[in-house]
Every structure is written in structure tokens, then in C-alpha cells.
From TrEMBL:
GO biological process assignments: methylation; negative regulation of gene expression, epigenetic; regulation of cell differentiation
Lineage: Eukaryota, Metazoa, Chordata, Craniata, Vertebrata
Subcellular location: Cytoplasm
SMART domains linked to this entry: SET
Assigned EC number: 2.1.1.359, 2.1.1.372
Catalysis performed (reactions): L-lysyl-[protein] + 3 S-adenosyl-L-methionine = N(6),N(6),N(6)-trimethyl-L-lysyl-[protein] + 3 S-adenosyl-L-homocysteine + 3 H(+); L-lysyl(20)-[histone H4] + 3 S-adenosyl-L-methionine = N(6),N(6),N(6)-trimethyl-L-lysyl(20)-[histone H4] + 3 S-adenosyl-L-homocysteine + 3 H(+); L-lysyl(36)-[histone H3] + 3 S-adenosyl-L-methionine = N(6),N(6),N(6)-trimethyl-L-lysyl(36)-[histone H3] + 3 S-adenosyl-L-homocysteine + 3 H(+)
Protein name, UniProt field: Protein-lysine N-trimethyltransferase SMYD5
Domain SET stretches: 1-333
Superkingdom of this protein's organism: Eukaryota
TM segment ranges: none
SUPFAM superfamilies, alphabetized: SET domain
Amino acid sequence: ASSAFFAVTAALQGKGLFARKGIRKGETIFVERPVVCAQFLWNSLYKYRACDHCMRSLETAEENARRLSGLSGLSLPYPDQCQVRPELHQCCPQCQVMYCSAECRQAALDQYHRVLCLGPSRDDLEHPINKLQEAWRNMHYPPETSSIMLMARMVASVKQARDRSHWLNLFSHFCSRTANEQEEMAHKLLGEKFQGQLALLRSLFSSALYDDHLSQWFSPDGFRSLFALVGTNGQGIGTSSLSQWVHACDALELPGQQREQLDAFIDQLYKDIEKETGDFLNCEGSGLFLLQSSCNHSCVPNAEASFPENNFLLHLTALSDISPGEEICISYLDCCQRDRSRHSRLKILRENYLFVCSCPKCISQADELDVTSEEEDDEGEGEAEGDELEDEMTDV
């Protein structure tokens, strides 16, 4: 699919992704693996078991359904449609973190895990990395939108590398922010007390990972810049063995009555899960994707990202036909947010992504009243929606 697109840079707009040839609705534009990714810390603490490298859900679909629904005796039909293979799972022999395969364990070891492995100190609350993670959890509560461990893996990847310039060059491709915008991003992720919290995080981060060759990342300005880079470019990742099982079941060719029974079973299962667990269904984290981070926002997107393989592989799919030369745009807003007034959309984007949208929809609605009285009443609820940013196109 790589021949279907190319990235360009414009002086005024920054990066953009444009179609090199015609792309049909439903076509996969590209599949991309992240430069680095990490599961959210509260998500992991709440027993959403994921591969520590690729974030593949480690629970079978049935285990996943039982935990989320609270129904311990639940049995899923068509168990052969579950693609999780527990017999392939491996743990780090030193610190016991789990991987979905020997390949992921080796890939993590080769890229960053030699630096970050806690060994026998995994449960030692005084270990510098554990202190860093605990501090982050106490500052950044669910719904989570980022992780300090994404930054830790960036540093560890450089520290482990034989060719450090290669990794520094990779990270330099991601969008950077002005000093004022960096402060706004820190405020968004950490809240009102972000100045003191940022200083504490930098101190703990330095204690855990300081390296003379990366001293620029540990200075106050450098750490704030690194923090803003992750906040600006981090793409939300969601994986689910249950969701993968449901999609596999949807593709089964079944007689009419069996199809009706299966659909009714799945509908009831999701009702039970909603009652027991609410909206938190997936293993969740974030990653840095070079191509995806080049996609600009539109309130009428022609592409969307998803994670159908139950791991960190991002699939960018066309939502409509895209003509040669047309910009490929995603949306940083969920479906409900995109249906709101221009005023509300601009407010969410300005507060969470620090830009003013000038997509065709926003331009065409420029003469509309700023906000209706009915929408003004719901504004507080809308801000909460903006903060959650939990749809599959979450950009932080």
C-alpha cells in the first residue's frame, strides 16, 4: 500500500500526507508499526494484560469476556475464532514482564528493555523507575491519554543503540512545539499544578535514566520539549482479543438461525459488559507513528486509524474515495464531537491540540453563530468529552 501515498512538508502547514494515486473507500492506505509504544500505567494496573512490547491482549477472548462482564462461568461459542495463543507467551526471565511471543521478547530486549528491566527489583517501591511510574499515576488519572513510560522507552532506545544518531534522527521527525505551547500541553496532561509536577517528574526521570549523551533531554527546557513531543504526537492504541473474536465471528458464514443466535449472544454480552465495566474495554496505550503523525486533522476526515490485528500495528483506512493529490486527513475528534457546532469543535481542538482548525467544514461554517444556548448548557459535558479523547483517533 506504500505506493498509494507520500508525505510532503509545507512551510505554513507543517507536515501533510497526500495521495499519490486514487484510493478507494475501504482500502488500506498503509499499515505502520510504531517507533516506540507503551501501555498506559493505570490500564496495566487494572489487569488489562497486554504484551509489554506490541500491546497484544494476552487474555483469550473468553477470559477477556469473563473479566469484563463479571460472568465467571461464561463460555464463548466458536472458541476457534479466538486468535490468542497462550502457549507462545513468554516472560522476561529477570523481571517477569510478559510478552506474546519470543519475537516480541527479543525485539524489546534489542531496542530498550536492557535499560529498563527491573530484574529482581520489580516490586521494590524505591526503585527509581517504580518511583517514576507511581508519581505519574498520581498525576495522570483515567481516562489516560499518555504515559511517562513512552518517554522512558525513547530514552532507553537511544541509550541502547549502537547508532544513537539514527534514533535521535527518527524522533526529530515528530512535530515540535513552541515554549508557550509546551507549557499548555503540560497543563493539559497534568492539570493546574503542572509546573511543580513537571519538575518532580524531571527529577525522577533523571534519577532513573540520566545519560550524558542525552543531557539536552534532562534539562528543564529539554524535558518540557520531550514531554510536549509525546503529548502532541502520541497516537492512542487500543487492543482487544474479544473485539477480534467478534469481528472473526461476524465474518463466519452461518445459517440464518445460527447467525441470529450468535448476534443476540454478542449483543447481550456487550450489554453485560457495559453494566459491569462501562467504557473501558481495551488494553490501552499510546505510540509514536512516523507516517500517522504526518496526517493533519479534518472535521470531515477521509481516513481513520484502527488496530484490527490486536496489536500495535496501525491500519490507516480510507473512509471515502480519495483522488490523486488530495490530502489524507484523519480526525482528532470522535463522531459525537464532529457533529457539534464549529464553536465547540474549535474549542476542543484548541484546548487539546493547540491549533485552530481550517478544514472545509469549519471554513464553510465560519459565519455561523458561535454557540447555541442549548449547546452552551452542555459545554461542561463537551469539555469532558474533549479531555477523554478515547476514540480510535486519539492523538494524545
